[in-house]
Design brief:
Number of helices of chain B: 11
Strand order of the largest sheet of chain A: 1-2-3
Shape of chain A: globular
Strand order of the largest sheet of chain B: 10-11-7-12-6-13-14-17
Structural class of chain B: alpha/beta
Strand content of chain B: 15-25%
Distance between the termini of chain A: 17 Å
Helix content of chain B: 25-40%
Oligomer: heterodimer
Number of domains of chain A: 1
Order of helices and strands of chain A: EEEHEEEH
Helix content of chain A: 10-25%
CATH topology of chain A: NE0471 N-terminal domain-like
Strand content of chain A: 25-35%
Number of domains of chain B: 2
CATH class of the largest domain in chain B: Alpha Beta
Radius of gyration of chain B: 22 Å
Largest sheet of chain A: 3 strands, antiparallel
C-alpha cells in the first residue's frame, strides 16, 4: 500500500514527499491548490472542476500538512482553503508524476 | 566456548520469528543481557505482549544458552509500548485526543448486516484479553448498538467535567463504550449523518481508554458516512472482515474489503461466521448455507481466511445472555476458532508493523517546520 515515508520542503518552497515505493518528488503550493479535489473546487456530481485557477494567488504558500486516516493528507493553504483531502495516489501523481 | 555477550547473541541468532522471517537478535528482541558467572538473564522485547509463540521463543532461548555452558538462564518478556511517539493521533483530531494511548486500532466490519460482526468483536476481544492483552471495544453502531447486551452491561460510563468519558469495564477486563450506554434501549436513535459523525468523533477522541494494546471497533454494516468518519479519524492498524458463506453476504463483503483498500487500511483477514451447524445430538457439522464461500473470497482478493466459526446453539445463546462464548464455553469449537482468529490477528499486525516501520502513520506538520531538502 502506498504510504509516505517523509515530508520535506525544497529550497524553492515546494512540498516534497518521499514514498515507500522508493520514489521522491515535489510539487509547488500553487499546483497543489489548483488540484484541490474538494467539493468547493470540483463539482461533486459531474466531476468538473469549478475552481478558477486565476483566482488562486501566485504567491500562495502551504501552512499545514496533516494525515487523514491511512490513505490521504489534508493541506492547509495561505488563502484559507483547507478542505481538500488528497489521497496518497493523487498526491504521488502530483509530486512524482 | 566463553560465555560472553558476543557468543550468546551469535547463538541466539538461530531463533527465528516465523512471521517476520528474521531472527530475534536481528529484530532487536534481545535486551538487557546480563552475565554473572554461569548465570545469564535477558529480556525478550516482543512486538506484542500476547505473542502466541512467546513460550516457544523462551524454550528455544534457554536451551541454546544452556548449551553454551550457562547453568541458569532467566528470560523475561517485555513488549514494545504502543502510543506516544509512533502511535495514533487522529487526523483533524483535537489536541486533547485520547486515542494516542491505544497501540493498535482494529476495525471489525462487513458490508452486510446480520453476519455476526458484534459476536465476532465480543469474542475476539475476550480471546485477546484472555491471552493477556489490554483490550477495548468501541461500538460504532450508533443506530443498533449491541455490545451492552453481549457483555450484560447495565451501567452508564462516567462522564468527566471536561466532557471526556471513562469506558465501562466489562467481563474479562474489556473496556467498552457503546451508544447503548447513552440511549434508552427501547427508543430509536433517529439521527442524520452529521449528528452521527459528531458522536463517532466524540467516541474516538474523548474516551479515556488508557493504555490499550488493541481497540476493536465494531463497525456498523455498509460503506457510508460512519465508516468514512471512522477511517478518517483514526489510523487503523488493520481490518477484520466478517461474512457468512452465502453469496448474498459475500457480495457485500467484497465491498467491505474494497472500502478498506480505498482508505489504506490493510485487511488482516476474513472470518466466515455461521460456517456450519454443529448438531447437539450427533455432533456432525451440517452445512446449512453454502460451503467454501470464505475460501473463495479469500483466494480472489488475496486476503487470508483466518477462521470459520460454526453455529452452535449453546454458544449462540451466550450473546443474548451477556457473556461471550469464549469466556462461558472455552472448550467449544467456536471458542477454539475465536482464539485462533485472535492469534492470527496479533501475528498479522506484528507483520504489518514491521513492514511499515518506516512509513508515516499519523502526522500534523507545520509546513515551515519541515526539513529543507532537495528532491
Amino acid at each position: 500500500m502506498l504510504q509516505p515515508k517523509k515530508f520535506f520542503r525544497t529550497p524553492d518552497g515546494k512540498l516534497g514527499v518521499e514514498w515507500n515505493d522508493g520514489s521522491r518528488g515535489a510539487c509547488s503550493a500553487r499546483d497543489l491548490r489548483c488540484a484541490c479535489p474538494c467539493a468547493l473546487c470540483v463539482d461533486e456530481h459531474t466531476g468538473i472542476k469549478t475552481l478558477d485557477d486565476s483566482s488562486v494567488p501566485g504567491d500562495i504558500t502551504l501552512l499545514k500538512v496533516q494525515s487523514v486516516g491511512r490513505y490521504a493528507a489534508t493541506l492547509a493553504f495561505s488563502d484559507g482553503h483547507n478542505s481538500g483531502i488528497y489521497p496518497y495516489d493523487k498526491l504521488r501523481e502530483l509530486t512524482v508524476g | 566456548m566463553i560465555l560472553d555477550e558476543k557468543n550468546i547473541l551469535k547463538a541466539l541468532c538461530a531463533v527465528q520469528d516465523p512471521d517476520l522471517h528474521k531472527n530475534i537478535v536481528e529484530l532487536d528482541f534481545v535486551q538487557n543481557l546480563k552475565i554473572e558467572g554461569t548465570k545469564v538473564s535477558f529480556d525478550l522485547r516482543l512486538t506484542t505482549p500476547t505473542c502466541p509463540i512467546r513460550d516457544q521463543f523462551k524454550d528455544q532461548c534457554i536451551a541454546i544458552v544452556k548449551s553454551l555452558g550457562a547453568t541458569e538462564v532467566n528470560v523475561t518478556f517485555t513488549a514494545k509500548e504502543g502510543g506516544s511517539a509512533t502511535g495514533n493521533s487522529a487526523a483533524k483530531a483535537p489536541q486533547d485526543s485520547h486515542i494516542g494511548e491505544v497501540a493498535h486500532v482494529v476495525a471489525v466490519a462487513s458490508g452486510k448486516g446480520g453476519v455476526g460482526k458484534s459476536t465476532v468483536t465480543a469474542n475476539l476481544a475476550m480471546a485477546l484479553s484472555l491471552s493477556g492483552a489490554r483490550v477495548g471495544i468501541l461500538d460504532a453502531d450508533i443506530y443498533g448498538p449491541s455490545m451492552g447486551l453481549m457483555f450484560g452491561i447495565d451501567k452508564a460510563p462516567e462522564v468527566f467535567e471536561d466532557n471526556t468519558i471513562a469506558p465501562v469495564e466489562a467481563k474479562g477486563g474489556v473496556s467498552i463504550v457503546s451508544m447503548c450506554m447513552f440511549a434508552d434501549s427501547d427508543k430509536a436513535t433517529i439521527w442524520r449523518g452529521p449528528m452521527v459523525s459528531q458522536m463517532i468523533q466524540h467516541f474516538i477522541h474523548h474516551v479515556r481508554w488508557g493504555k490499550l494494546d488493541y481497540l476493536l471497533v465494531d463497525f456498523p454494516p455498509g460503506t457510508g458516512d460512519i465508516q468514512l468518519t471512522l477511517t478518517q479519524n483514526c489510523p487503523m492498524s488493520g481490518a477484520v472482515v466478517v461474512t457468512t458463506p452465502q453469496e448474498v453476504a459475500l457480495a457485500d463483503c467484497r465491498k467491505g474489503i474494497a472500502m478498506f483498500d480505498n482508505v489504506g487500511v490493510p485487511v488482516i483477514g476474513v472470518v466466515e461466521n455461521m460456517s456450519y451447524f454443529i448438531c447437539d445430538q450427533c455432533n456432525k457439522p451440517h452445512y446449512i448455507f453454502r460451503q467454501g464461500g470464505g475460501e473463495s473470497i479469500a483466494k480472489k482478493w488475496g486476503v487470508p481466511l483466518i477462521g470459520k466459526v460454526p453455529l452452535e446453539p449453546a454458544v449462540a445463546d451466550c450473546g443474548d445472555a451477556g457473556t461471550p462464548a469464549v469466556l462461558k464455553y472455552p472448550n467449544s469449537e467456536s471458542a477454539r476458532v475465536f482464539m485462533q482468529v485472535a492469534d492470527a490477528m496479533v501475528r498479522t499486525i506484528s507483520v504489518f508493523d514491521h513492514e511499515n516501520a518506516d512509513t508515516l502513520k499519523s502526522y500534523n506538520y507545520e509546513f515551515e517546520q519541515l526539513p529543507v531538502e532537495s528532491v
